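Question (not urgent): is this output format expected?
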Amino acid sequence: MYIFKDTNYDFLGKKWPFIIFSLVVTALGIGSLVLKGGPEYGLDFRGGALIDVRFSSRPPVDEVRKALGQAIKGEITVQEVSGANDLQIGVELKEGTPEARALALQAARGQVDQLLKTLFATPAGKLDFHNVGQDTLVEKLREPFARAGVSLNDIQLTEAVQAMLSYRNTPPRSGLISSLSELASVAGVTPAMLPVLNAELALSRYSIRNVEVVSPKVTGELRNQALLATLYALAAMLIYIAFRFEWTYGLAAVVAVFHDTIMTVGLFSLFNKPIDLTVVAALLTLVGYSMNDTIVVFDRIRENQKLIRREAYDKIVNLSLNQTLSRTTLTAGLTFLTCLALYIFGGPVLHGFAFALVVGIIVGTYSSIFIAAPLVIYLREYLESRKKAVVCLLYTSDAADE
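Got this back:
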């Protein structure tokens, strides 16, 4: 399918506006990174508290995100877990001593728990059975059981509470039960205890299953691994293109991909957008996408060199760019529309990922035409001028000897 047929656009003649634009945006992005002390990292790389919450039905993600964002200072992430009624809530924790971070973790858990109780209207005066520990439950039930004539010593009460919590936490319940009447089947729970349990306890629609801290050390390792993954990908592609074409093509392609990556990261800094693991995944996707687009152009240049031997190299390059224009437009255009829809409708969780793809596709497409192709011509002309200089030097030396 051809959108453009028999075109003869002078792409190489229009390269300088795009090169200047790239230099300006890259300089602004690098300047922003320097002034801000590097990229703004998300919780994946900066560290914080991760709170896993399970719901009895599909959770209202946007409602939870809005409530947490209004009540808790710092960065908040709310991600829905695929295939389950679970949310993973990330809360930023300030760096400090382990003791200070432990206190901050407890405070964050308490804030999240309180907000969820407010959102889902846990009855006042009743203890939420889905989010209570053993000691608190024992203290809550001791006096009501005594008033109701349920004779239990501390050991028996503790064993009964342990059995109830064990039943609650055992799969397939995994922290949530549908009714307090289910506890009638638990060892140590008598019929006389059920009215007390119904009077004193309530069942919310959520359960905080796990709370953990992602330390700065772990996030530092993630940053290093993400950087190494990108560099390894670039090195492997350089070797492949140098082997399949020439080293000049490989160098031009890698420079173009570096250009795409640096520009994208710079724009993240300019727009104050955090970089997390999903953004790294998008950057690695762009490395492959941009490289593939560049290889298609280079492959057509190589084919035309065999077919049109007498034509000047820059004209062969320009012809190749025109011949691959329809393919580039179709591939980049459709991919861009898909990523744009993801950016508009994908929600906050995918916002950074989609932004990186939208920006990267635009930058990667024009870099194949206006960065990589002119760079190949420059490198080829430079090598030819060096060869001519060496030949002239040898000729002059031979003439002098004669």
